[in-house]
Amino acid sequence: MNLKFHGWFTECSPMWPGQAFSLKINKLIFDKKSQYQHIQIYETEKYGRMLVLDGAIQLTERDEASYQEMLAFLPLNSHPNPEKVLVIGGGDGGILREVAKHPAVKEIVMCEIDDHVVAACKEHIPSLASGFSDPRVTLHFGDGMEFLGSHAGKFDVIITDASDPVVPDDDEAGKDGPAATLFNDAFYARLHEKLNPEGVLACQGESMWLHKDLIKGLMKKSRELYPVVEYAYTCTPSYPCGQIGFILCSKNPTLNLRVPVTKWTSEEVKRLKLKYYNTDIHSASFVLPTFMTEFLSSD
Ligand code: SAM
């Protein structure tokens, strides 16, 4: 359920009960129900264009770089040679745009369930779209879980840029969205199979202010598969509580995800048009507040 009054968009969801973030909107510029979800693009007063899926804010032009750059470069710059990259979800194109900036990347495969998200974002938020025309990119439309089951190749880095597993419904508990299949054990096991021996996985990891139990559970499951598992985070005002995390896993037991192998100078940061990511923030993003460190280390 989303409340709209006096030109404001208010984001309510069972994933963050009892709180809501609002943005003043100038107009609704795209509105369509696809086979999978309700897709809307708004022009906001202060945050540029905004993509909303099933009532949940996916990105705004003003702050999307804080999420896309971190989810792309935390794994890519931790891996010594990230030649083959898989992106699951990410239909807006933002992760693809960033992955395509990395000089070591030779092949990018993306599996997105909803071609209408891609088409709508290409047309209405073109600042995200540069990656779609990159010759290294192959785009598949389908469910990420099924794709992993049928694709023969393996990858150096896998990034899952999924929407939330639960989406609002008329009833307060909400219902499973198309991304529900991307948050279960079977999906994590398949991701592991598709990673090369030195591979790094990075997943959208939800907010520590809202989903501590979910994060802890995902990290526990991941530790059954990977010798190195970490939670890092970024600050994105338009995401619930202004903070969203990433779960990062490595198959290489000696890899320190906190210290990037690829370190970019401030000139390179400028040349790559980065707004948020730099080498210092890479390491800093793994430093957690006391309440989270205590929670994650408790039984
Ligand atoms: N950064 C955003 C966030 O965390 O709010 C996510 C952005 S991106 C738009 C999420 C994408 O995941 C959507 O385009 C959606 O269609 C796609 N998606 C959802 N379920 C999927 C699935 N099972 N397989 C592949 N893509 C999926």
What does this structure look like?
The protein has 299 residues and is an alpha/beta fold. The chain folds into two domains: 57 residues, Roll (Spermidine Synthase, Chain: A, domain 2), CATH 2.30.140; 234 residues, 3-Layer(aba) Sandwich (Rossmann fold). It contains nine helices and 15 strands. β3 and β4 form a beta hairpin. It is globular. The structure holds S-adenosylmethionine (SAM). S-adenosylmethionine binds next to β6, β7 and β8. GO terms for molecular function: spermidine synthase activity. Keywords: Polyamine biosynthesis, Transferase. Belongs to the spermidine/spermine synthase family.
Which features would summarize this protein structure in a list?
spermidine synthase activity; alpha/beta; 2 domains; 6-stranded antiparallel sheet; Spermidine Synthase, Chain: A, domain 2; single chain; SAM-dependent_MTases_sf; binds S-adenosylmethionine
Number of strands: 15
What is the radius of gyration? 18 Å
The name of the CATH architecture of the largest domain is 3-Layer(aba) Sandwich
Strand order of the largest sheet: 9-8-7-10-13-15-14
Structural class: alpha/beta
Count of individual domains:
2
How would a textbook summarize the main sheet? 7 strands, mixed
Family: Belongs to the spermidine/spermine synthase family.
Protein name: Spermidine synthase-like
GO biological process, one term: spermidine biosynthetic process
Domain PABS: 6-251
